[in-house]
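Milestone M4 deliverable, item 7.
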Amino acid sequence: MMLCDAAQVAEGKLFILGGGWSMIGPAPTPSAIALKIEVGWHEAEMPHHWELFLQDQDGADVTVETPEGPRPVEVRGDFQVGRPPGVPEGSPVDVTLAINLGPLPLQPASRFTWRLTIDGETDEGWTLSFSTRPPEAEIPEAM
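Output delivered:
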């Protein structure tokens, strides 16, 4: 998993723009998460469900205001991968995902973590943490 400015998948490859950051803002800006998932040979051909949840530094879900009221920031989807011909039996099969996000109104000077689950399971390493910069100091007007 990698935080980036934008990401795209083409022909099974991830194309990443502005990747590898861990600080953003303070103003809301678009961002993306690039994912490369290795699916075990025995799990290929089966449907899988993934979910990403944004949490604050205390582990609480981050919410944003919507026309329907406050909603948690989360993204989910499904994938299924076949076993490519010619790949040695037992080899993991790659799945690449690019999740592009619009600007999120996040609290400045704070820490956040994206948490990934696949088929309801998670792992300690399936997280991406980042910070938001503090508000920029106001520049005094010229006299």
